[in-house]
Amino acid sequence: MNLWRRVGSKLAKDGIAHIKGGAASLNRRNLILGLAPAATAAIAGLAGCAPQAPDTANYAPSFFGVAEWSFMQAAVGRLIPSEGAGPGGIEAGVPEFIDRQMEMPYGHGAYFYLTGPFIENTAPTLGYQLRYTPREIYRLGIAAANGETQKLRGKAFADLAANEQDQFLQRMEKNELRFPTIPSAVFFAQLLGNAREGYLADPLYGGNRGMVAWNWIGFPGARADFTDWIDQSGRAYPYGPVAINGVRG
Predict the structure, then answer these.
(1) Measured between alpha carbons, how far is 141 from 160 in angstroms, rounded to an integer?
(2) What is the pTM of this model?
(3) Residue 204 burial class via C-beta count within 10 angstroms: exposed 0-12, middle 13-18, buried 19 and up
(4) Cα angle 208, 9, 90; round to 5
(5) What secondary structure does DSSP assign to 114-175, as a single string?
(6) What is the mean pLDDT of residues 84-93?
(7) For residues 106 and 46, is the Cβ–Cβ distance under 8 A?
(8) Neighbour-count burial of 36, counting CB atoms closer than 10 A to its CB (0-12 exposed, 13-18 middle, 19+ buried)
(9) Whole-angstrom distance, CA of residue 89 vs CA of residue 95
(10) Distance linking the first and last C-alpha atoms of the chain
(11) Cβ atoms of residues 56 and 206 within 8 Å
(12) Domain extent listing, the chain
């Protein structure tokens, strides 16, 4: 069972996944739709930065190093795998989105409260309590993850088999791995959250390449007016999405 479906089974408790035949099974379309507010938050945080439209054909990361980029490609490929319904995270350009985020104010912690005291073991309801910016979380988290897989398997994360990557990510999420810097669950949450955002954000920011995610879920994007369709539950939106720059999907 790939990690995306496993995460969906966990989220079933919140009503995002469907329960069929007494067992939790993930409808990835419904999972993505249930997470749409995350993409909205990402757009709100980035829109003021006026980025240029990305050249996705020959993208080279500006923040992530070679080994880090290999990790990101592999991890995103397991969090939002290409198999199954809908486009995968790699096809949608999610790693590129995250790399671009790291060079924006968000990546530098502009929207984080980073004044101590820093208390690691607190209730999730109290929010983020550590000293690290998103850039630092990725830099430290990837180094720790690769160090752990080297110790356990003698390989970097990107060189593991897909099922081994899934198992490792599952252990990260459960905080079963003891990283020397940040908790593994904090790194996993950062990675998964940004992957969701990149999958659903406007293509201007590097992810959702070609509006593939919007086309898949039937989201109209930045169309000026689609109010006539808001109350037409169950009917497919017929016109396709529009990006912020006016490109039609």
Answers:
(1) 17
(2) 0.76
(3) buried
(4) 25
(5) --S---SS--GGG---SS--HHHHHHHHHHHHHHHHHHHHSS-GGGS-HHHHHHHHHHHHTT
(6) 89
(7) yes
(8) middle
(9) 8
(10) 32
(11) yes
(12) 52-229
From residue 238, alpha-carbon distances to 215, 228, 241 in Å are: 10, 12, 9
CA atoms of 208 and 88, how far apart (whole Å): 10
DSSP state of 18: E
Q: What percent of the chain clears pLDDT 70, i.e. is strictly above it?
A: 77
Q: Cα–Cα distance between 141 and 187 in angstroms, integer?
A: 6
Alpha helices in the chain (DSSP H): 3-11, 28-34, 36-46, 66-79, 94-102, 134-153, 162-173, 184-200, 212-217
Per-residue tokens: 118: 């820093």
Interval 6-15: pLDDT, tens: 333 333 333 2
Mean pLDDT check: name the lowest of 181-195, 196-210, 225-239. Answer: 225-239
d(CA 47, CA 149): 37
How far apart CA 203 and CA 210 sit, in angstroms, is: 7
